[in-house]
Amino acid sequence: MLVEDQNRYPQEPPQLPQYDISPELKKLTLMFIGVMLINFLIAGSLAIGMRIIQTDVPVIKVDGVSQNVLFYALLTAHGQVMFFGVVSLNTMWFGYYAMSKWGRKPLSGMRWAKASFWTMESAVILILLSGLSGFGAGWYNLMPLTFLPGRPAESWGGVAATAFLVADVLVGVALTIFCVVILVTALRGKLPVGTERFGSRHEDKPTEKKDEEHEQDLEHTHMEDLPASVRWVSLLGINGWFTKKWREITPAVPIVVVASFVTALVQIVANPGLFAQLAQGFASIQNPIAASNWLLTKDAWWFFAHPIVYFPLLIFLGAMYFFAPRYGKEKVPFNKWNYRPWPFYFIFSVLVFSHHVFMDIPNPIWLQQVAQTASLGIVWPSSLTIFTALLFTWRSQISWNITTRFFFAGIAGWAFGGFQGNQLALWGTDVYLHNTMSLPGHIHLMLLVGPLLMAFGVLYAILPDLTKKHLSKTLGEIHFWLTIFGGFGLALVFTVIGTEGAIRREADMPAAFHWAMPWLLFFALSVGIAQFVFVYNFIKTLRRKPTRSEVLEYDDLHNEPTGTVISKAGGYIKRSDDWQIR
Amino acid sequence: MSMIHLAADYGWGPSSLLLMLIITIIVATAGFFIVMATTRMKRKQTFASKTRVHPERYWAIGVAAVLVWLWINSYPWMPPVAFSAVNPAREHVQTVDITAGQWFWLMNVEGQSPLKPGTSPHITLVAGQPVKFVAHSVDVNHGFGLMKGSTDSAMLLQMQVVPKLDNIFYYTFKEPGTYFVRCLEYCGYAHPYMTSTITVLPATPGAATAAGAAAA
Fold first, then answer.
1. Who wins on pLDDT, A63 or A347?
2. Residue A272, CA atoms < 13 Å, CB-side half-sphere
3. Model-level pTM?
4. Do residues B182 and B194 touch, judged by C-beta distance below 8 A?
5. For the domain B94-215, what is the CATH code?
6. Among all residues of chain A, which has the CA nearest to that of B151?
7. What is the mean pLDDT of chain A?
8. Chain A contacts of B64, Cβ < 8 Å?
9. What is the DSSP-derived secondary structure letter of residue B113?
10. In what order do the strands lie in the sheet with B94-101?
11. What is the DSSP letter of B147?
12. Three-state SS for B100?
């Protein structure tokens, strides 16, 4: 029996591309989302445990040494599960979904996509098991601490360390599989493209006029097998930098496809860093003291690990470029500035890694200067994206639903994290901020209230497409407000105490900062409760029957896709789809 | 006597950084709310009309200019550039040899008697004379952090102590007093307790002798 319920977010069509992804991919996407949420709850609970220990709430009763050991095990597992079990899984599910949906074709390697899911989740389970065995070398696994915990009998032994290393191998494999699937899907076969002069190229009406009809003619789309050089230019957004004459005739691919491609390309370039670090790790298990170059091992790790921070971000920026103007009811919202940042995102994401090792004085000066240049350089495309988002919003008809609110809050969080990042990006000022609580502040702004909020925005927008049902509006509002309240509060308190001199990764925080600990616990609990609300909303929606209005709505959508019919020449129905470059 | 000038000496110390960050966040938050408020205005604007005056172009140029300015301005604070102010051939440089391990600091000043086992692990230096900290680790990666005042005050300098390498940082103490050393890089469960102190005497004639006597 169908149940009527008015308390649902109405379908404000984000006008997703009219391509139905395969049922297999839908199922995989929902699996990714479900498991990601479970991992989020687990990793969040580990963080609450850390907060409880530092607040001295008498819930966890252990003595001094055991309390520290527990704290560091929680810290390690929290960081790794968040990075790989949550934000990376977010990128993976949306990457597969987006490449198929916006690329208007099946994924190349559906079986590999499934394999990446199981590999990553196996890694997460192994990370948790190593944590249960006391492994606490930090999520970034700074060797040789992995093998020299100080007193193994009181902290962790070789088995836990080996399990952790194996888990990270699986992480690397899963990420590599994801990148390969995305890249192959993008580089092989046809892609949806459009150009301003599409009409004249394909023997339609010439598009010389500058009136409204001409505006409509600009929005053509078709599938084309691009030559390799043109394909790379389009997929990296380089054509956004062409002069108007060349821009008008160079094919443009959907911005979400560009974002997916750049994300995968950056990460596949970075992954060898992880494997190099792990290889050194495995080689050192027997005799870590005799091992060779720990500085190089550290540099290799950060070559992987800074891009992994942008891995969850870039793809959701692509989503923002797509969704924001649509919710603002714009007809042709995209312009060259949407595409221009992307070549710089690629270059700087790869180069920026070594600002993590600014404090390693023995690193060559040229490397440090490249790091500073790239760290400041990545601010440039980031600021462009933020500006474009604000420009979309300014005096627009945007409707403030749950998706747009999450996007806007995510852009704000990412911007605040970026302001802080500017200070960390300068070698001279990083001297005062590195290894203080400013860094957890920065990373929680950059990840928790940045891309994760944008990911939630995307989830609310596309879950109806996957499930043909709407989520509860009231529960969505609670989720939104509690998440941003707790997330921003947490990040800002971290930042304030960090700049006052609180050191990070201190199980035993000095007395001068005890005032902040209850606040951190309070904000962390807010975030945690919000996610339970969302999970409840998600499960409840999946399990209930669709309402009558939902059935009619999705039947209508399926039969009458959105977008104006431009022409029916050659048996192909051309509709408006506004992702071409102007 | 040359002085090593780091970012704080140019007005970009921790307090200034926090103030700049707070102001930026307040301004940005206000900006975000203003943008949101404009969506309630009756007179809307299409994206095409907004971009007619090419705001993105001017924004891109402006941001690039600010970033270049930051890079150029921060050049003197880059540690190797700051350190180049020291000329060991012409002035006395106090060299401190630091050994870091789980979970201790062992510091010895060149020219002074090495610390005896069981003595309180702190050293004595002189203000106004450059200090060369040379740190090496016997086990894992540590972080040498120096703070003025109690252990919870803002940072004066820091560097990583990577195993098997000499990690070098130059610094000039401007004021006498007691400074605190903390390990900044997580190195095992007793990491929070890996601390030490440095006593800095005023820069007077004979201060170096006094520092050596204090160490003995």
1. A347
2. 4
3. 0.89
4. yes
5. 2.60.40.420
6. A510
7. 84
8. 380
9. P
10. B104-109, B94-101, B130-137, B167-172
11. E
12. strand
Q: Bridge partners of B167? A: B135
Residue type for A90, please? N
Strand partners, A470: none
Quote the minimal CA–CA distance from B25 to chain A in Å: 6
Cβ B70–A435 below 8 Å, yes or no? no
Per CB-CB distance under 8 Å, the chain B contacts of A384 are 56, 59-60, 63
Burial profile B29-43: b = 16 or more Cβ within 10 angstroms, e = fewer = eeebeebbebbeeee
Give the closest-approach CA distance of A516 to chain B in angstroms: 13
What's the token pair of residue A104? 């208007």
Helix or strand or coil: residue A500? Answer: coil
Per-residue pLDDT tens digits for A154-197: 788 889 999 999 999 999 999 999 999 999 999 999 988 875 44
Measured distance CA(A535)–CA(A238) in Å, rounded: 40
For CATH 2.60.40.420, the residue range(s) in chain B are 94-215
Q: Which tokens in the block code for residue A108?
A: 């190349």
**First vs last C-alpha separation in chain B:** 26
Residues A500 and B152: beta-carbon distance below 8 Å:
yes
Taking the CA of residue B74 and the nearest CA in chain A, the distance in Å comes to 7
A412 contacts B182? CB cut-off 8 A: no
pLDDT digit string (tens) for A339-391?
999 999 999 999 888 778 888 888 888 888 888 898 899 999 999 999 999 98
What's the CA angle centered on B143, arms B167 and A424, to 5 degrees? 95
Q: Could you tell me the end-to-end alpha-carbon distance of chain A, in angstroms, rounded to an integer?
A: 49
Quote the CA–CA distance of A331 and B47 in Å, as a whole number.
9
DSSP A164-223: HHHHHHHHHHHHHHHHHHHHHHHHSS-EEEB-TTHHHHTTSS-----SHHHHHHTT--EE
Token pair 């407000």 is found at A481
Q: Kindly report the nearest CA distance between residue B107 and chain A, in angstroms.
A: 19
Assess if CATH 1.20.210.10 describes domain A24-192+213-241+248-575: yes
A chain contacts of residue B44, beta-carbon cutoff 8 Å? 395-397
Residue type, A126: L
Q: Is the ipTM of this complex over 0.90?
A: no
Residue B200: strand, helix, or coil: strand
**Cβ contact (<8 Å) for B189 and A69?**
yes
Burial class (CB in 10 A: 0-12, 13-18, 19+), A111: exposed
Q: What is the pLDDT of residue A225?
A: 87
Query: In what helix (H) or strand (E) does residue B155 lie, and over which residues does it extend?
Result: strand B155-161
d(CA A148, CA A155): 10
| Angle between helices A402-425 and A379-393 in degrees, nearest 10 | 150
The strand pair at B167-172 and B130-137 is best described as antiparallel
Strand order through the sheet with B177-183: B122-126, B195-201, B177-183, B142-148, B155-161
Contacts of A245 (CB under 8 A, 6+ apart): none
Please, what is the Cα angle at A442 between A436 and A448, to 5 degrees? Answer: 130
**Helix/strand/coil for B122:** strand
Residue of A nearest to B12 (CA): A429
Name every residue whose Cβ is closer than 8 Å to that of residue B110 and which is 6 or more positions away in sequence: B94, B95, B96, B97
Task: Kindly give the confidence (pLDDT) of every residue in chain B, 216 residues in length, as a single tens digit, with 9 standing for 90 and above.
Answer: 567 788 888 888 888 888 999 899 999 999 999 999 998 888 888 777 777 788 899 999 999 999 999 999 888 888 888 888 887 777 788 999 999 999 899 998 887 766 665 555 578 899 988 999 999 999 999 999 999 876 557 788 999 999 989 999 999 998 899 999 999 999 998 898 898 999 999 987 655 555 555 544
Q: Which of A62, A408, A426 is best to mutate for the B interface (most B CBs within 10 A)?
A: A426
pLDDT above 70: percentage of residues in chain A = 84
Contact A101, A19 (CB under 8 A): yes
